[in-house]
# Entry
Amino acid sequence: MRIRAVTENDWPAVWPIVAQVVTAADTFPYDPGLTSAAARGLWLESPPGLTVVAVDGDRVHGTAKMGPNRPGPGAHVATASFMVAADSRGRGVGRALSEYALAWARRQGYAAMQFNAVVESNEVAVGLYRRLGFAVVGTVPESFTLPSGRRVGLHVMHRFL
# Structure
């Protein structure tokens, strides 16, 4: 698995992953009706941010975007988001993308990384982030509605770099 910066030519392979994750509506707080054009605008970061893909040969298995969590006085804290193709899950793609984002943030001089909206019921992601040194610093109760209609919290997770 190789992680590299996304190129314009990657979007046709990235979009199905984004669409799959967003349409499932159980782990990511984007509108399930998101179009390819709107998703492209949300997902492809401009400097100082970066969007990457995890590839094996010609196949894109996952993608991540990273950059400053907030502008101005909050710009010393990074954030990142990750999406992995359903048939590539459980193979370490998410972990590789997460480790890449942490290393990138360190190289860029960020002091910490914060995730603003980790769905509480997404046990795989929450567990991975905890193993990578993140802590839940707060949970906004019942702020995410699962497809079943059940409401769960969104965790804010943080770690110093």
